[in-house]
Design brief:
The complex is a heterodimer of chains A (about 300) and B (about 300).
Chain A lengths: L1 H19 L3 H23 L37 H37 L1 H16 L2 H12 L3 H27 L3 H8 L4 H37 L11 H8 L8 H28 L9
Helix pairs in contact in A: 2-3, 2-10, 3-4, 3-6, 3-8, 4-6, 5-6, 6-8, 7-8, 8-9, 8-10, 9-10
Chain B lengths: L1 H28 L3 H6 L5 H11 L5 H13 L14 H36 L4 H15 L2 H15 L11 H31 L2 H8 L4 H19 L1 H18 L5 H10 L3 H29 L1 H4 L3
Classes of the chains: A mainly alpha (about 300), B mainly alpha (about 300).
Chain lengths: ~300, ~300
């Protein structure tokens, strides 16, 4: 028992020391990210109403700070009388789910392609990098629209499409970093000791290039959130009635003169979340690999 | 130098060719064009006749060569919805609106971004620097579809200063160009600021100062010249961002460009137009990237001696 108590205080102490060296925007950003993740995970238990069920008596209720608003619906209700706050909470869950799946998928594919290209070189490199160039030059939003129009908006489509956009960044980074270290002594040693190429990449190259890839993953979270919202706004993202923040803005667009909060609240949710993610991503990039700062677009 | 440029040109051609295969396959995988053209009441005999007429009964490689041959002569088929207009004519007629919008946005973002980035780096941690960093942060975080709606609400609906939509007069450009350009403005400001900070701490700038050059020449000539190289490297990306952003911005502001045409033709399943739009946009991408590569080789002396 004393042992765990000691560990706890030392952890708390370490956290306090870490917290103290951050400037205030970064503290706000970290706090917002924690809220975002918390809300996304525990949404169904903390949401005040069912995000999909409206009550027709409470249609287009204004938010609490507007005249006629009430604490019953803090951010008001939409045209079907659904509670906006509950829909924002459900939208956070959608955003986070898409982020996690897309970044895992794009990261895995991109890293595999990039390390293979960098490690083997020659024709493997040339062909794989042409593929990366092709992926970079394809107008992906059009691909998303095309897929969405053919098979209808679906969760799977949006994941495939956004992953198609983002894997190439990992491939480029992984290739460059692999090129830097593939002739290091420890890699040569592993090779002469008869390890297979796969094991060399997995055990000796991947751990060394991982920090740069983690920075890219962090910097991509914001891009994924905005892309998902944009595609849902255009009607080819997360299918209705699931409340994606993007489709909520699209829903509110025709009420902009009479009920501006329908657009404003989900838009601000996107803006604040992405700003927080970007601030944290920049700080992480500064710490791990300063060369990446400002180079990510 | 010529050799590198020649290699780039050949690579661009190969990329275009690959892209045409991708687009061809996508358009064939995306449902049965015959069922789409004939509608539900067609008999099997009608379908076979139609397939023969369009050459769809032949093997895929032959179909592809036909498609490529037609594409090279500018024949992309006819629009299904817009009164049998040739697809290429339709796309080309919408091109000037998109290019002028992207051009206006790009020129303004370049000027403002460079000036802002330089001022921020010279007056580090001053109010200008803080403002520049704030704009960079917000600009890279705000979703453009929402920004467009917000700007429209503030400047057109509430203040009645600018039109909500329309095309032709200078004031029509302001809101769409601002929406389209903010992301790039943020990116350029960040790039210029960080590479200027790097340059200002370097040896050759110290030398220039020791030589007694005036501060404005040191900053705007010597430091900036080197700081612009990363901006040039990213010009291709900026162009790509603008073309992609055009689909959203043109849809929000009802701008008569190829972005909105792409969106509308995909929703109405006008596949000849879709094919053409995607091919035209990817060609623009590839050409822009080629020009950037060449510009880069010409500007950076280190690239000239290579190869």
């Amino acid at each position: 028992m004393p042992d765990t108590a000691m560990a706890l205080t030392s952890n708390a102490g370490r956290f306090r020391a870490f917290w103290r060296q951050l400037d205030w925007p970064l503290r706000v950003a970290l706090a917002m990210l924690v809220i975002f993740v918390f809300v996304a995970i525990f949404g169904p238990w903390i949401s005040p109403y069912d995000p999909l069920q409206g009550s027709l008596r409470a249609r287009l209720a204004p938010p609490v700070w507007q005249e006629g608003g009430s604490w019953a619906h803090i951010f008001g209700t939409d045209r079907l009388g659904r509670d906006i706050l509950s829909r924002i909470i459900a939208g956070a869950r959608i955003s986070l789910t898409v982020c996690v799946i897309v970044i895992a998928l794009a990261g895995a594919v991109g890293t595999a392609v990039g390390t293979a290209a960098g490690y083997f070189g020659g024709w493997t490199d040339r062909i794989l990098m042409r593929l990366v160039d092709l992926a970079l030059s394809f107008p992906v939003i059009l691909l998303a629209l095309l897929l969405g129009a053919i098979s209808g908006p679906s969760f799977t489509n949006i994941i495939i499409v956004i992953s198609l956009v983002l894997w190439s960044q990992y491939a480029r980074m992984a290739r460059g970093e692999t090129l830097k270290i593939r002739n290091e002594d420890y890699v040569d040693l592993a090779r002469t000791s008869g390890l297979s190429d796969f094991r060399i990449i997995w055990r000796h190259i991947l751990p060394n290039i991982a920090p740069s890839l983690i920075v890219i993953a962090t910097l991509q979270v914001g891009i994924v959130i905005v892309l998902e919202a944009s595609l849902s706004f255009l009607g080819v993202g997360v299918p209705p009635p699931a409340p994606s923040w993007g489709s909520m803005v699209a829903d509110g667009r025709s009420y902009i003169t009479s009920a501006w909060w329908l657009c404003m609240v989900p838009g601000l949710a996107i803006l604040f979340t992405v700003m927080a993610v970007n601030l944290v991503g920049d700080a992480l990039a500064d710490r791990i690999n300063p060369a990446l700062r400002g180079r990510n677009i | 130098m010529l050799k590198i440029i020649a290699t780039r040109v050949i690579e661009a051609f190969i990329a275009l060719l690959l892209m045409s295969i991708v687009i061809f396959l996508l358009s064939r995988l995306t449902g049965d064009p015959i069922a789409l053209l004939l509608g539900d009441g067609a008999t099997d005999a009608d379908k076979i006749a139609m397939a023969q007429e369009l050459g769809l009964d032949r093997p895929l490689p032959v179909q592809y060569l036909n498609f490529l041959g037609n594409a090279l002569t500018g024949d992309f088929g006819q629009s299904v919805t817009a009164g049998k207009q040739p697809a290429l004519d339709l796309v080309l007629s919408r091109l000037p609106a998109s290019l002028s919008l992207a051009g206006v946005a790009l020129i303004f973002t370049l000027i403002i971004g460079i000036v802002f980035g330089v001022l921020a780096s010279v007056t580090r941690n001053s109010p200008i620097d803080v403002a520049a960093r704030l704009i960079a942060l917000v600009g890279q975080s705000v979703p453009s579809f929402w920004l467009g709606i917000v700007l429209m609400y503030i400047f057109a609906v509430q203040l009645r200063l600018l039109p909500t939509s329309g095309y032709g007069r200078p004031e029509h450009y302001i809101l769409p160009a601002a929406t389209l350009g903010l992301f790039t403005l943020a990116a350029i400001t960040r790039l210029v600021r960080s590479s200027m900070l790097e340059a200002l701490g370097s040896e050759y700038i110290k030398l220039a100062r020791v030589k007694g050059l005036s501060e404005s020449i040191v900053i705007w000539k010597h430091a900036l010249a080197n700081s612009l190289i990363p901006v040039i490297t990213f010009m291709g990306t900026f162009f790509a961002v603008m073309i992609t952003g055009a689909v959203i911005v043109e849809t929000v502001f009802s701008w008569p460009g190829i972005g909105r045409l792409a969106y509308e033709s995909i929703l109405s399943r006008d596949f000849p137009v879709v094919q053409t739009v995607v091919l035209v946009i990817t060609s623009l991408f590839i050409i822009a990237n080629l020009l950037v590569d060449i510009l880069y080789i010409v500007v950076d002396p280190r690239m000239r001696s290579r190869g």
